[in-house]
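For the sake of transparency, this paper describes our internal protein records without simplification. The remainder of this section carries one protein's record, kept here as part of the documentation:
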Amino acid sequence: MPLMSGRQLAEELRSIRPEVKVLFMSAYSLETVKDYLILLAPEEPFVVKPFTIVELKSKVRAALEYRSPFSRPRVSPDEDDHD
């Protein structure tokens, strides 16, 4: 993506909707992705292209079950602490 990385997009989406599910995908191996300092959280769903339908199904299931350590509950302006 020209304007931001997939990691940045995921973080932006999660700041708006913490419950959003993300499956990272690349034509590069996980090791190559790490070499570019694009860090994924432990067990964060990642699939390498090309992939089979079976691999995709497994990774989508993992993404649906994954709870990001970066997810934050959304707080609306009306929910500020007014003690």
Observations:
- The mean pLDDT is 81.
- Helices lie at 6-16, 30-35, 53-65.
